[in-house]
Write a structure and sequence with these properties.
Distance between the termini: 22 Å
Order of helices and strands: EEEHHHEEEH
Structural class: alpha+beta
Radius of gyration: 12 Å
Number of domains: 1
Strand order of the largest sheet: 1-2-3
Largest sheet: 3 strands, antiparallel
CATH superfamily: NE0471-like N-terminal domain
CATH architecture: 2-Layer Sandwich
Number of helices: 4
Helix content: 10-25%
Amino acid sequence: MIVSIKEAEYLKNYKIRIVFSDDKVNIVDFADFLKHAKNPMTKKYLDQNLFKNFILANGDIIWNNFELCFPIWDLYTNNIN
């Protein structure tokens, strides 16, 4: 099955509501992933102003030209650890 993201909406803190191409909806909380990140390029997204600044591109959610992105299947299964 090929799944893409058709909608993403920032909710609060580090939570984003994601709607997939098959209409499945997940609320993904990125807080633990960001707080435990070792890479400073990832950790900088603890700044909520940066975190909120994502876009959808070709069915994927990305930050700053793919500086931060996640495998769609991990978002679909809500397993980004």
